[in-house]
Amino acid sequence: MVTIPFIKNNLLSIDIGFRNIKIVEVEVGKGNEIFIKNFGIASTPKDSIKNGAIKDVRAVTSEIKRVMKDINVKAKNAKIVMSGTNIISRVFMVENIPGENLDDTVKMTISQSMPIDLDAHKIDYKILKEVKDEGVPKVKVFVTAVLKSIIKSYIDILVELGLKPISVDIPANSAAKFFNRDIATSESDTWFKKNKYGKLDQSTFAVLDFGSETTIVNILKDRVLEFNKVILRGSSNLDDAIVGNTDKKVAEAERLKKIQGLILPELNVSEEQELIYKSMIGVIDDIVRQIFQCFEFYEKRCFGEKIGKVYIIGGGSQLLGLRDYLETVLQVPVYTVGLLSIEGIKINSGLDVERLNYLINSVGITL
Ligand SMILES: Nc1ncnc2c1ncn2[C@@H]1O[C@H](COP(=O)(O)OP(=O)(O)OP(=O)(O)O)[C@@H](O)[C@H]1O
Ligand SMILES: [Mg+2]
């Protein structure tokens, strides 16, 4: 094969969420720097995803096609991020028996400890670190398993679109790739000024993806993914809670959620504002409780360290007041992330910067 120098690789990246499909066309440079040429956000057709698999390939592809045409996509190669539900992940300590093949031992542990059909799943594992447990050499492994039939439904989408499938990834991997780069944050200083916690060890951190139907908890240590769990509650549950407590329709509830956020005016709070606040905070607290459980589980059961900071991504992370609220309850600095603050990512001028926050996962897998 002849390689032509300086040719840039065009790549299309598609992140399929319950609510929005995020489509990004990038150029990947020689040094792996990314140029975002264009992007578009499509509405996910209702009921087209079931248990993590694409059920209505036709509806999903026609929606993607429309957006691809809109933004004039040229790329032929594509990567896709699947919906977060129905991905199984675990952390194991596996004894590294001298003279035995570690790969075999890990596979044996998986078959004994994970209650899944091994033939029907695609299983990946990563060795995180080697330790000595009372003199016994062990390795810490991170395992993910996804049904092959689910993966196929995503490949079907790319094939149907006439694209060449390069990879199907889970959201945790795309977030991990993204957060592997240097990120400039702005709010950190204010947090450290406000809270005299001294030096916090931030080498272990969480990335929380607030989606519409799900909230994904990722924990990374030294930028390597060590824990992942999908909480089956998300920003749409806020809308539902408002609908349940007021006479609002769901679209109106979502609009009010975005306007009011978790912030109540100091004076003259109306009864309605208070009702909306109470509806939302109930759901948020339930999600926070489950996030907290994940942190505890990671620290105690996955041999992890304390979480030193949190990044929030996903459409739901834009909820007004959420960042401050999370800092108060989780007692660690919480950062929102913009694409503009990442090393090695350039963005076509003229793109709508406001909506770039949706793109962390789709950009992540291109890295
Ligand atoms: N400014 C805002 N304030 C609060 N919520 C917002 C705001 N903007 C968008 N959202 C919410 O974000 C959600 C959509 O986010 P996103 O596109 O990340 O979800 P998704 O990826 O489709 O869902 P999932 O990850 O669960 O599959 C919607 O519920 C929407 O109401
Ligand atoms: Mg999502």
Short description:
With 367 residues, the chain is of the alpha/beta class. Helices cover 33% and strands 30% of the residues. It is built from ten helices and 16 strands.
Count of distinct structural domains: 3
Supply Rg.
21 Å
Overall SS class: alpha/beta
Q: Strand-residue fraction?
A: 25-35%
CATH H level, superfamily name of the largest domain = ATPase, nucleotide binding domain
CATH topology of the largest domain, what is it called? Answer: Nucleotidyltransferase, domain 5
> Can you list the ligands bound to this structure?
adenosine-5'-triphosphate, magnesium ion
Give the biggest sheet. 6 strands, mixed
Strand order of the largest sheet: 10-6-1-2-3-16
Report how far apart the termini are: 24 Å
Unreliable stretches, pLDDT < 50, 5 or more residues?
Answer: none
The CATH C-level name of the largest domain is Alpha Beta
- The second-level CATH architecture of the largest domain is 2-Layer Sandwich
Overall strand count: 16
Number of discrete helical segments: 10
Q: Based on Cα principal axes, name the global outline.
A: globular
Helical coverage, percent range: 25-40%
State the order of secondary-structure elements, H for helix, E for strand: EEEEEHEEHEEHEHHEEEHHHEHEEH
Mean pLDDT, as a whole number? 89
